[in-house]
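=== RUN LOG ===
request id: a7f3
mode: sequence -> structure
chains: 1
length: 294
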Amino acid sequence: MATAAVKQSQILNVSGDSSTYFDYSSVELEDPPRFLPYDFEVYDWKEWCRYMSVKWHFCLIAGVIYIITIFGLKAFMSTRKALDLKRELFLWNLTLGIFSIVGFIRTAPEFFFVLSSENGFYKTICERSGGNMPLAFWSLAFILSKYVELGDTVFIVLRKRPLIFLQWYHHLMTMVMCWISAPYLEPISRYYVVMNYAVHSLMYPYFALKAINIQIPRFVSNVITTCQLTQMIVGLFVNMYTVYLINGAEADCYRHQVSMRLSFVVYGSFTVLFGKLFNDVVAKSRTIPKTKSS
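=== RESULT ===
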């Protein structure tokens, strides 16, 4: 979610309790703002954070419904013909692609501004500074979009395409992590939001074109898979680095135990799963011998 400017003395480490983290009375966005919002981007972000902190279990309920739905639907479709849904799938992926592109455009400037400042890497992962309304709005949109993206799996099941573990596990755990971690307003969430928007800006337009049978060079798929794996490695690395800062360097770093542990589980497992996908899709594709042209 949104980050906000606070005094260095207010930065907490993993020893802070949840009640302190959910007290937003002293947390304010930049004034004057460095990045101006559009009218539709202005909303009560504190109220949304409070709501997610109280309704933390909402994502778990949604997750159970998701699992029951996709596997129940898979069983239902086992005796029926696959649905075509090319037009619907094209529009679905196109919409999510446009959404991701706009989300990246609105969140990346703040991220790179902070990253390029003095001691920028530390600030991007540990210090609550540079908060602005565009980042707050598109961070919330990012979180809510994880519920919408569950529809990707529904399309797979209805079209009777192979439903691999990575597909539904990735959607499920991303939704849970984003919803539960959001109220802590951790600076490190910049990486999750901006990287995911960037990767999806490539992935969903690619799937949109594939849905209408447009031929795309194989290297494009390899690039997207490589970007996905890179995203997971970076996510795991920045989490590990904050642990070092807190425990090894004894530096101030705004993290909470719940979010930190959940992030390790999610990004650790994602790195393994996407690493396997990379090996199956990218690495092996480069070892296939080329046939001589006649």
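=== NOTES ===
Residues 218-248 form the longest helix (31 residues).
The radius of gyration is 20 Å.
=== END ===
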